[in-house]
Amino acid sequence: MTPIATKTARATKSVLVVDDETAIARMLKDALGLFKHDHAYTVETAADGIDALAALKRRQYDLILLDMYMPRMSGLQLLEEMRRLNVQTPVLMLTGNDDARTAADALSSGIFAYIPKPFDLQHLEHLVSLAVSSRSAAR
């Protein structure tokens, strides 16, 4: 008799992707669906910091992937608003700018990690896993 393999259900984590480039947001959403973690991901997107702030007022997320430079409200401005609202969600900051000063500003704002574009998907997968795990451990 062959043993029946049981597939354990993966916990679902919610992610907010904030990027004004729709192709990047779509790629990140697709990539999260392919990651082989202990978690599955539901992904919402926002085109800028103002849209993201509205989403954050509606619900909590387990992780935020945040572009630094966007129209209307930048990633750093959104981080300031998140801290003011006491939103403790881990943030992975994505940027096409590799300026050391900008990276230092982002890191001092309390983000989980700073990821320059173009990014390696394996590296991103690792950081997503770590950030979501840190969020689970903190609860």
Question: Can you describe this structure?
Answer:
The chain is an alpha/beta fold and 139 residues long. It has one domain: Rossmann fold, CATH 3.40.50.2300. It is built from 5 helices and 5 strands, in the order E-H-E-H-E-H-E-H-E-H. It has a 5-stranded parallel β-sheet, sandwiched between helices. The chain is globular, with a radius of gyration of 16 Å. 29% of the residues are buried.
Based on the model shown, name its key terms.
139 residues, globular, alpha/beta, Rossmann fold, five-stranded parallel sheet
Number of domains: 1
Principal-axis shape equals globular
* Percentage of residues in DSSP E strands: 15-25%
The CATH architecture assignment turns out to be 3-Layer(aba) Sandwich
Tally of separate helices: 5
Please tell me the overall pLDDT. Answer: 86
Low-confidence stretches: none
CATH superfamily: Response regulator
- Kindly report how far apart the N and C termini lie: 43 Å
Concise structural overview:
The chain is an alpha/beta fold and about 140 residues long. It contains five helices and five strands, in the order E-H-E-H-E-H-E-H-E-H.
Outline the secondary-structure elements.
Blueprint: E1 11-18, H1 22-34, E2 39-46, H2 49-58, E3 63-67, H3 75-84, E4 91-95, H4 100-108, E5 113-116, H5 121-138
Parallel strand pairs: 1-2, 1-3, 3-4, 4-5
